[in-house]
Structures are given as structure tokens and as C-alpha cells.
Amino acid sequence: MSKPPLLVHLIFHPASADARELARTIHGALNADPAVPGLRVPTVFCPTDGIAPPGHYDLDEAERSLAVVLADAWVVDRDSGQERTWSRFIGDIWDACRGTPHRFFPVQLHPAAWGFDDRLGGTNFVRAFAEADQAARDALVVRRLVIELCRELRDWDSLQEPSVEAKGPVALFLSHTKLDMEVEPRVTSALIDYLKHDQPVRAWVDAGDIDAGSPFAEAIERGIDDSSLLCVLTDNYSTREWCRKEIILAKQHQRPVVVVAAFSRQEVRSFPYLGNVPVLRWPCIPPDQSEAQKAAVNRASAVAAVDLLLKETLRYLHATVLLKAVAHQGDLISARPPELLSLLQARGAKTVLYPDPPLGAEELALLSETRVPTTTPLSRLAAERPLQGAQIALSMSQSTDILRFGFDEVHLEGAMVELSRYLLLKGATLVYGGHLGDEGYTQVLFELVRAHHCLEGVDRVERIVNTVGWPLPYGQELVARYSLVARLQHIPRPGDLDACPGKAVADAVEANPFPPDQSPEHRYCWARGMTRMREAQAAKDGGIAARIILGGRFGPPGEGPGSDERWYAGRVPGVLEEVVLSARAGQPVFLIGAFGGAATLAIDLLEGRERSEATWDYQRRAPNAEAMRTLYDRCGQVWWDYPEMVQLLRGTGAAAINPLLSEAENRELFHTRNVARMIELILKGLGNLSAAAGR
Q: How far apart are CA 303 and CA 311, in angstroms?
């Protein structure tokens, strides 16, 4: 998959903290909603270089892009006299979407943020500024965006021509029984009232059918291929033949279903085919509440139920498109985990392919009685384990200038997790030098290992080697705590520290590795410990087959939005040191440049571009840097200077830094923003390890 099928571009002025926070909220809603764990729609932010808009913007990174413009007062600069203005840039984005598969989705966050470019005069903006409450505003924007994405994905296969738009609405059907219509808290009435009067886009709800109060059996039979079903599960629901039929029809036609559990007392018999779908509990309202309080609770609950169904519909549609892209011949695509009902229909299919995560062993054992094979993309990947026993070092950390590349830390963390998951499934042992605290990427790695221990057919092998460099905490208690997921490899304190700067200083650093204020001596000791750890990882006899690099601090990149003013703690930027040590040892290095940081700094040096950050004049501004360098001289330790590191990387070049890939593939990895493509290239290169070892 060279391109993702769908990509959401979140475009906003870099000086707008409000728009940036809304962009993060949107990313979280599309990728980190615990109520819809399988919903993962990729997003990128608009790259920023200071305040000016980008000179060029590429919407063709995906088969279809949705350009979401978060317009507030900052973008209204049409009369500024500048050649490059945000007003013109947004107008250019609108132009770039015309006659293409891409869509323009503008959101008005301020009353003045409309009509700021002549080309946008007839464009309908989402009037988010009309919501006085920020939480309500953000929810409105997310809801409208989810609906628009559903419209894009609903007609995916039928949209062959770029000029054809997805016009059809998302159809919602309310499945309920009239017997419980007037039973408190009158859930069906609350949902109908919300859908009739407050639906955000009227075209996507069949309001006429809802107003009639019928169970919609005939409507579902007519339009089952294009509907999402919201089931109001009340006491008498499962006793009604047409209600049961609606659920069976929806599942037989593989439609999105959400259940609202709204019992007043109990069910006599639960309907067995109502499982395997998201369930939302309708809150119980105390009888002493006023009518106004009851109405407020019911309305909030109706909003939550419809929003859940919309997100489940988006997950369903997006998962279907992704599964089709990786399906093998003979696969039957299922957007939800298989169950006995669906497998009865799948007889004759070679395999049922459904989204990750895979079902547990107890369910799979039961489903195997149908003799219909089932799998997920990751389970299928795990069946082939060419990296069994290969140790792959990971250099992944927060990036100094990530916002300048159109990403945020949430994107970096997501890419780190996704890449690590694929490496684990391919059988690799991951080597990572990180702190064993309660937070951070190390703990994420351990959770991945615990999760994949449960995968059917995946052996329990050594999955993580955590290199604990002095002065990071280490002891038998930590060894025991992580024994099931990792082997801790301790790199002891460099012996020369006892002589210079002195045993008392080194003991103090070991007792308190993270003081609020670091002295030059503390930073010197820390740097020596971290360099020793990195040298051990890069040693030819260390067993590491390759290293993967992304992110990394290198010091403040300057003024303006996206600048991270925090410095690194060692002698030089840690990720940069890992790159040069691996390059000097001839260790293949996969460099991912999409997220900026020290990885991109190394790429620029490899490709011959000058970077002021790779000079002592720049790095001497780090806290206690000059005093630390003096300690290197006084203690007789070699100071590997920046000109030497630059010369080493320039002499290595883009082709030789990683002989497991071609030069063109290396350069693609340097610059692609498509996480799926990054993983493809890395797995392809690592697949050449055995051939490289033979040479």
C-alpha cells in the first residue's frame, strides 16, 4: 500500500493555540476514542515554518484527502500586503480540491473567519463559533467531520471518476418496540425528538420514518445495504418478532449496529444475536428529578447514542476499505469480529478477514467448529516470522521540531507503537534503551508484548531487551517485575568516573539521576553513562542487526510556533549520537524523517545540507555545555566534535547508511509521511538481513 486510502489534513494558523488544541481533539476523536477502539483514521497537521503558510501543500499523499480548515481570526490577513498570506493559502487549498477526489471542509471558529478569500464566497462553512461552550463546539466539529467522512467512504467503490461526489446521506434507522414507548425514561421518544429537531445534518436521517413511530422493518428490508441501526433495547424489545428480524437482517447484511441498553426492570430472555456490537447504557434518572432535569439527561444521552453510532459507522466503513486493500483472493471481508451467525453465511469462503485485534482463543475454538477459517491482518502477518531471533535497536523519542513537519507528538507516539507492533509480530527482538518509569515508550513496549503473548500461534520468546544505562535505576526488583516481557541488560557505571570527577560525585548522581538543577559534573557523568550504553548497542559483537531512528531532541530550533525549548541531557543529542555510532560500526540504520528532530538532522547531513544545529557554536548554548566539555578535557576523555560527526555522515551517504534498502528506497523512507509505507519499507529491508549476513 503506497498510499493510505484516506487522510485527514488539519489546517490551521500556527499561532492559534485554540485551533491547535481543537486539531488534537479531532485527532483523538478519530484515533483514540475508548468507546470505538478500532477507529483509526490517519491525520496530519499543516507543516509550519515560523508564521508564514507553506509554499506548497500536497493533498495527493492519500487516495482521498479531506482538507479540514480550522479558520479563526488568525487566518484573516488578506490585506496584510504580504506575498504569502493564510487567506490566499486556504483559497489555494480550495482550488486544489476542485476536480479531484479530495474534499474541502472549512470550519468557522470566529465570526470574522469567513469570506477572507474571494474564492470562498459561496462555500458553506461549519459555523462552530455559534456554540458558546467550547466542549459543545468541539463536539459539533467532530460530529460534522465524522458524518462527512462517512459520506466519503460510503460510496468508495462506486466513485471511479474524480468529479463524482459522494452525495448519499448516512441512513440511520431506529429499531424499537412501541410497547415501551411511554415507559420511563421514554428513551425512544428522546431519540426521536433529538433526531427530528437537533440532527446536525438533516439529510442523513430518515425523519419521516422516525416520525411515524414504526419499527422500520420494511424500511430496513428496502434499504439494508445503506443503513446503520440504532437498537433501543427495552424490556419488551426481544419479545417482538419484527425487532428480532431487524437485528438479524442488519447482521446478515453486515451493517453497523449500536445497542442502547434501556431496561426499566429486566428482560425475560435476552436475544442471542444482539451481541458482538457496541452497547451504551442509558442512564437511570431518579424520580425526584424535575422535568427539565430529566429532559437534559435524556437529550445528552440521545446525543451520546447517535454520536456512538456515527463513529461506529465510520469505523465500519474505514475498516472495510482497509481490509479490502490487504485481502487475499477468496477472503470474505467482515468489518466486525466473526460470530456463529456470520460464519453460517460465510460457508464456502476461503477465509473470513476481520479487523484487529483477533478474538481470544476461547472464541476461536468455538468458531472453528464451523470449519470456516478466520484471521486478521496482524494474525496473518504473525504467521510468517522471518525476523525470529533478530535484534533490532529502536531510537525513538520526542522530536524538537515536529510541528514544522505537520505532525504532533500524538502522531509520533502512534507511529512508534504501530511500527513496534509489526516488528514484534514478525518475530524481532526489540532493543531499547529507555527509562523504566511508569510512563513513556518503554511501558508501551511492555504492554505490546503482553498483548501479543495472547495471540494464537505466537511463541512466547524474548521480545524486548531493555538496555539500562547507568545512572538509570536498576536492581533485582526491576528484573523480577519485567521478567515476563523483557530482559534487562545493565550497563554499569564507567570506572573512570570514580577518579574524575570523583567517586562522591558519581555516587550522588547514581542516588539522584534526575535532579531539578544539573551541575556540570552531573551532566558529565550522565553523558559518560549514556555514551557507554550506546557504544554497547553499536558494538559489532552486540548482536544488533539494524537500528531504526525517528524523532529525537537536538536543542531549541528557534523562535515561533512549534519550537521546543528543552535541551537534551547528554554530551550531544542522544539520537544523533546513536546514528553516528551505528554508522561508524557499519550497522544498517533506517532513518525516518517525517517527524523531524535528530533523525531529520542526520538525514540533512547525509544529503549534503548544512545544519547550524550540527555545530559547536549552536550546541554550546545548552546548559553547562562548555563546562562539561572542559571536564572531558580535564578527565582525559575524547571529545568527539561536530565536524567529525558531520564528516562521518557525509562520507557514509544516503546509499551506504542502510544497505538493506536501495538508495531510492532509503530516500523515500527519509521523506514519506505515510506510516504504512514506512513500515513496508522497514519490513522489506529487514527481510534482506539473511542475504546481507551471507555477503
A: 12
Helices (H), 224-290: 241-252
Q: Which of 102-116, 309-323, 414-428, 604-618 shows the lowest per-residue confidence on average (mean pLDDT)?
A: 414-428
* Degrees, nearest 5: CA angle 599-601-604: 110
Q: How many helices (H) and strands (E) does the chain have?
A: 24, 17
Reference 12, options 23, 3, 2; nearest CA is: 23
pLDDT at 174: 87
| CA nearest neighbour of 400 among 615, 555, 600, 613 | 555
Write phi, then psi, for 318 (nearest 5 degrees).
-70, -40
Q: Tell me the percentage of the chain whose pLDDT exceeds 90.
A: 61
- Residue 45 scores a pLDDT above 80: yes
pLDDT reported for residue 205: 36
Q: Which of 408, 410, 304, 308 is nearest to 31 (CA)?
A: 410
Please state, as a whole number, how many other Cβ atoms lie within 10 Å of the Cβ of residue 111: 11
Angle 418-420-425 (CA atoms, 0-180°, nearest 5)?
A: 100
Residue 354: strand, helix, or coil: coil
Dihedral, 121, 126, 129, 134 alpha carbons, nearest 10: -160
CB pairs under 8 A, 24+ apart, for 603-609? 603/654, 603/670, 605/646, 605/649, 605/650, 606/649, 606/650, 606/652, 606/653, 606/654, 606/657, 607/654, 607/667, 607/670, 608/650
Question: Minimum mean pLDDT among 3-12, 281-290, 529-538, 584-593: which range?
Answer: 281-290
Q: Residue 220 pLDDT > 70, yes or no?
A: no
pLDDT for 216 equals: 44
User: Cβ(301)–Cβ(319) under 8 Å?
Assistant: no
Residues 6+ positions from 396 with CB-CB distance below 8 Å: 412, 416, 432, 441, 548, 549, 550, 551
- How many Å separate Cα 215 from the centre of its chain? 39
CB 586 within 8 A of CB 433: no
pTM for this prediction: 0.88
User: Could you give the CA distance from residue 532 to residue 270 in angstroms, rounded to a whole number?
Assistant: 63
Cell of 9: 489534513
User: Which residues make beta-bridge pairs with 469?
Assistant: 491
Per the rule left: phi > 0, alpha: psi between -120 and 50, beta: everything else, 254 is left
